[in-house]
Amino acid sequence: MSTLNGKVLIVEDEKDICDILKVQLETNGLETIIFTDGTEALEHIQDNQNIDDIDLFVLDRMLPGTNGIEICKFLRMYKKTKTHPILFLTALTNSDQIIEGLDAGADDYVTKPFDINIFMARVRSLLRRRQTLTTTDTAEKKEQHIYTTKGLKVDTNQCKTWIEEKEVDLTLSEYKLLVAFLQQPGKVLTRNQLVEFIQDGPVHVTDRTIDTHIFGLRKKLGNYSGLVETIRGIGYRVAAE
Known about the structure:
43% of the residues lie in helices and 20% in strands. With 241 residues, it is of the alpha/beta class. It folds into two domains: 130 residues, Rossmann fold (3-Layer(aba) Sandwich), CATH 3.40.50; 94 residues, Orthogonal Bundle (Arc Repressor Mutant, subunit A), CATH 1.10.10.10. The strands form three sheets. A five-stranded parallel beta sheet has the order 2-1-3-4-5, with helices on both faces. The protein has a four-stranded antiparallel beta sheet with strand order 6-7-8-9, covered by helices on one side.
C-alpha cells in the first residue's frame, strides 16, 4: 500500500485512542496534530494562519470545552476550512446522533469501538477526495459542468441527463438531487441536507418528500437505479467510482 501524504488534526480526549491514531497515521506517512480539549483546538484553528495546510480533521463528539459538533459547524463556516474533510470518531452510535453529525457538516462517521483498518480506509477515502478538490480548485473547476459515473452523464449547463447517450426526462427536484450526489460522490447526504439542496421558493419540502423524489429518480434511472444507495436511517449517496 502506498504511503499517504498530508496532515491530520485530531481532537480526542482519550489518550489511548490518541496514541493508536498517531501511530497508525504516522506509520502511513501522515503528520498529526493532537488536541485533547475542544476549546484549545478551536483556538488553534482560529489563530493558525496555516490551518489550510490541514488535510483532514478527526473529531470526537464528547470533549472537554467545546464539543465536536460545535467545532464541526465552525469548520464549515470558516472560510479557510469550509471544504476540508471532517471525520467524526465517537461512541455516540444511534441514527439520530449520526444524522446530527452529518448535518453539522461531517463527511464521514466512525463509531467506537472501531476497527483501525476501517478507520484508515475512511481516512484514505477522505484524503483522496481532498486531493481531488485541491487539484481542481482552479478555473477548470469553475468551468466544470459535466458529471459522469458509469453510463450516467449530467450536463449542468444544459440541465440535462443521459443514460448511455439516451436523454432522461427528470423533474427539477429529481435533477437537483442527482446533481447533489454527483458533486459529492461517496458522501452520505442526509434528508435534511437534501431538503436544503432542492428547496426553492415558497414550496415547502419535507424530509419525507425526499424519499418520494428518490423513488421517482430511481424509477427513471432504470437499470442504473442502484447508483443511488440508501444508507438506512441516515440518507442516501452515490458511491464513488
